[in-house]
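The following record pairs a protein chain with its ligand, zinc ion.
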Amino acid sequence: MKRTALVVSLLTVTLVAVVGFAIVKSQQDHKEKKSDQLSIVASTNVYGDLAKTVAGNKAEVSSVINKQSVSPEDYEPTNAVAKQVSNADIAFGNGLGYDSWLKKLAKTSKSTDTLLVGDDILHQKDGANPHLWNNPDYMIQAAQGLAKELGKRDPDNKAYYEANAKRYADKLAPVQEKIAAVKAQAAGKAVFQTEPVLAYLLEKLDMQIVGDDFAEAIEEGNDPSPAVLSDIEGKIKGHELKLFVQNVQTTGGPAKKLAKLAQENQIPIVKISETAPDHTSYVDWKLSELNAIQKALQ
Ligand SMILES: [Zn+2]
């Protein structure tokens, strides 16, 4: 009897220990398991920044292109990135062919949905200028579109996502105000850009964009025609041009040559890039570009 009692109590102790361990283990598993939280992978830090604001603490957000040294249009994803995308719930990108690798990678995974700002939210046609983030209105629409998508997947937090999209729009107010201020000086002035990167912002400033054919050729990786080149050279030498926008992520000879000519002719040059400088928010990035344009036009 005593022996039996001892066995029973030993069994009880063991059982309690096993059950207890199992409970602790399952809590740990729960903590480590991230799949119950939504995950978003953005093609560039521009959209990662936006997604972080909209998703708040309800999703894991990562960006593939984080460094300014990488030009998104020439980007080739690694195997690790392929895994990152196929593990995500939402692949969030620019679209319009700008980051086509993202869609391709997302297609290989059944559980990953693609949400492209240009195609799915703004419903723009292929061939439209893909540098959408340079129009703050498009960014606000992108935030609303992402909030809608997140609300569909996670209806309990629909209002939270919508409020965050509103907060994102509010965050962009200083950029909108700065555009209005710079526009007073910039409207009607001739501007040239080595690539059509800043077009949407320059249009918001009512600037007159010249040399589009050059920018398009560079963007496509082609050489601009001699006629196009001499047209811009003439505008630089004649001081018709009031602002020269140089994409620092383009290293091609023709663009460099024109920048040198602009410098020699005292045409102000503003240097820009496709992706945000490292550790810089979208708002700070756009404000610094607008400040540079304002200063150049003084
Ligand atoms: Zn580009």
